[in-house]
């Protein structure tokens, strides 16, 4: 639960505008408010935070050190809110869909929202009406089925098993990380876990067809010539896998994108693995041709690939 000290988004937007524009009057103009209204809201925000945020002088107003620090933190929150807004817009059942995108879970949760924000900004800068995106989230195998059937012109998968009947392009890479509960014996281990040990250990895993699981099975079989042990637990979402690992059920292997926050908060502990990096491609797929269908699908694939990779 958020504490009473947590400002709402409109207050954070106001603080960011004051910092960027350097005055209350300029911030008021941008936000469509009176200068008195912004000044009153700023005093309310200072009371909520419990510290002065604005240094008021006859020559104008500037943020205090505390105000600048909170504005820095607010920038991360506002960026996350913008990504959330783009993500929610993509799954609204009542939206008029102009582009249907299918994506596997890690990509949908950790990458696609920022790609949608970038696409929207790109289109707005060109004076275009932003594309409304409908998003379907599933495992990599099901994403391939949606693209193959024509239900989704563009898909994003995490599996090394690229469908041979679909066109594809690698847009990013994601390293897989062996993680355990901080209380697990491997959390205190000094030597890396060998690939043979990892292959022989029952893990918490996603279901068959998941890109994460397919990648791990492929890499371990390729490097050890041995099949993976049967899973300790098989779950259908990345969040459920992370929770089971954190609860001490068994070790697990997940994408670095998916466990980054858990590692920072010490809910999970990363364990070194001997041998080559466990790296997987993140791949855009479509039905035919050298590039996705012209228009929003092609533009989104280009955004996903990053500058210079279109």
Set out the fold topology.
Layout (H helix, E strand, L loop, with lengths): L8 H13 L2 H8 L3 H15 L4 E4 L2 E4 L1 H27 L7 E6 H6 L1 H14 L7 E6 L1 H10 L4 E4 L9 E14 L14 H6 L3 E3 L4 H14 L8 E3 L2 H9 L5 E4 H9 L4 E3 L7 E8 L9 H10 L5
Parallel strand pairs: 3-4, 3-5, 7-8
Antiparallel strand pairs: 1-2, 5-11, 6-9, 6-10, 6-11
Helix pairs in contact: 1-2, 1-4, 2-3, 4-6, 6-12
Tags for this model:
two-stranded antiparallel ribbon; 7-stranded mixed beta sheet; 2 domains; Arc Repressor Mutant, subunit A; alpha/beta; 310 residues; D-Maltodextrin-Binding Protein, domain 2
In words, what does this structure look like?
The protein has 310 residues and is of the alpha/beta class. It has two domains: 9-80, Orthogonal Bundle (Arc Repressor Mutant, subunit A), CATH 1.10.10; 95-310, D-Maltodextrin-Binding Protein, domain 2 (3-Layer(aba) Sandwich). Helix content is 45%, strand content 19%. It is built from twelve helices and eleven strands. The protein has helices at residues 9-21, 24-31, 35-49, 65-91, 105-110, 112-125, 140-149, 195-200, 211-224, 238-246, 256-264, 296-305; strands at 54-57, 60-63, 99-104, 133-138, 154-157, 167-180, 204-206, 233-235, 252-255, 269-271, 279-286. α9 links the parallel β7 (204-206) and β8. α1 packs across α4 and α2 (24-31) packs across α3 (35-49). The protein starts with 8 loop residues before the first helix and ends in a 5-residue tail after the last helix.
């Amino acid at each position: 639960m958020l504490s009473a000290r947590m400002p709402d988004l409109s207050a954070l937007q106001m603080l960011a505008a004051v910092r960027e524009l350097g005055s209350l009057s300029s911030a008021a103009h941008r936000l469509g408010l009176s200068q008195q209204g912004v000044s009153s809201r700023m005093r309310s925000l200072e009371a909520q935070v419990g510290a002065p945020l604005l240094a008021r002088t006859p020559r104008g107003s500037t943020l205090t050190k505390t105000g600048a620090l909170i504005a820095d933190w607010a920038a991360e929150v506002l960026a996350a809110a913008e990504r959330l807004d783009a993500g929610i817009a993509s799954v609204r059942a009542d939206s008029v869909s102009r582009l249907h995108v299918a994506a596997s879970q890690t990509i949908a949760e950790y990458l696609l929202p920022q790609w949608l924000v970038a696409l929207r900004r790109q289109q707005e800068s060109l004076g275009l009406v932003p594309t409304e995106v409908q998003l379907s989230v599933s495992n990599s195998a099901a994403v391939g089925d949606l693209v193959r059937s024509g239900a989704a012109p563009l898909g994003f998968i995490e599996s090394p098993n690229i469908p041979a009947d679909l066109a594809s392009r690698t847009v990013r890479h994601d390293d897989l990380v062996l993680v355990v509960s901080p209380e697990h014996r491997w959390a205190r281990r000094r030597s890396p876990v060998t690939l043979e040990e990892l292959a022989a250990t029952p893990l918490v895993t996603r279901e068959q067809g998941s890109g994460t699981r397919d990648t791990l099975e492929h890499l371990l079989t390729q490097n050890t010539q041995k099949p993976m042990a049967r899973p300790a637990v098989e779950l259908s979402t990345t969040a459920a896998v992370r929770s089971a690992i954190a609860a001490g059920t068994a070790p697990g292997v997940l994408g670095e994108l998916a466990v980054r926050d858990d590692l920072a908060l010490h809910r999970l502990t990363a364990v070194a693995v001997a041998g080559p990096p466990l790296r997987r491609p993140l791949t855009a797929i479509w039905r035919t041709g050298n590039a996705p269908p012209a228009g929003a699908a092609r533009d989104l694939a280009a955004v996903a690939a990053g500058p210079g990779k279109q």
